[in-house]
Write a structure and sequence with these properties.
The chain has helices at residues 2-22, 26-51, 55-80. The chain is mainly alpha-helical.
Length: 82
């Protein structure tokens, strides 16, 4: 079950990376970057559970907050016009 989840997460990472690199416009690339952060965060939490190290949970939490702030900043930038 865990192997299947990792395969699907890996496929999602590949597809989101492809969209980020080849996106038709900047807002699509921003959404792809947000998807990458949303996929990476549960992977960090899974690594914390698997290794038994609680510090990875703190890293995932800080990563989530910074990713959210980055997407909000990007959205405000695109809203004002490029």
């Amino acid at each position: 079950m865990l192997n299947a989840a990792l395969v699907f997460a890996g496929a999602g990472l590949v597809l989101a990376t492809w969209r980020m690199l080849k996106g038709p416009d900047a807002p699509n690339r921003a959404v792809a970057l947000d998807v990458l952060t949303l996929i990476a965060m549960p992977l960090m939490i899974g690594a914390a559970v698997y290794s038994g190290r609680e510090i990875y949970l703190d890293v995932a939490l800080v990563y989530a907050v910074l990713a959210f702030l980055g997407v909000v900043a990007l959205a405000r930038y695109y809203d004002r016009g490029i």
